[in-house]
Design brief:
52% helix, globular, 297 residues
Amino acid sequence: MINLPEVQDLIPGIKLTIMAHKKNKNPKSFTKDVTLTKQKEKANKKYYEKELVKLQTELVKLHEWIKAQGLKVVVIFEGRDAAGKGGVIKRIQQRLNPRICRVVALGIPTEKEKNQWYFQRYVAHLPAAGELVLFDRSWYNRAGVERVMGFCNEDEYREFLRSCPRFEEMLIHSGIILIKYWFSVSDEEQEKRFRARMIDPTKYWKLSPMDLESRSKWVEYSKAKDEMFSYTDTKVSPWYVVNADNKQKARLNCIHHLLSMIPYKDIKYKKMQLPPINKEGYIRPPITEQTFVPEVY
């Protein structure tokens, strides 16, 4: 059972209509307010979907240009838990060729990887010519979760802050285009999203004990982020902060900015013609010999 405060947090616009209903107990007035709110949300969603298709069409052109020109592109997505990184990554990759654009989301390092040079396991996933790689979290784990949760010691942390800018400069000088995004979300909005995940069976898997513990370490994460920026927000490799309290706006703004970071042209291909099917000279076996999936729907 969900109590009223939770509903007010989870459903945009409903708090305003509930307050209006308290002032004016006319049921017709309340229904009208709810209807207007729904119409506005529907219009906003329609606009969002229209703009998203436009941007995704440009992303297709960009990734074709990356392939044709042999570019090597790395885009890093960092931010607090439930900031919306996965959502924008999904929309970027949605209409692209997975052989050109791939996502890297590494899990916990193995014992062998823990004894390697820290950046080594990430280097293995860097792009070859003609590839776009999206890092859903990256080597910045060391400056964030590892720092706050005590998964690295002080020497390892300080060494990362010293070596990371040089590592990124090396990547850039080698010809890699490196773009870094930080998704910024307020504590109030993060709480709403966590609560939504708790009651949505399709999103419950997104919650982990680490996510819940991060709520009690909000200040520690803030300090870690600020110190990380002081070392790694450089002129050669700057951070671009995305205001992520509104998911749809964040997705559009991030994709729009990404498209502006890499000059590209629309590649003109020759018009294709579909040839007719040639079925002569072969008799197929009876269709009853095949095992079909039951048509439940």
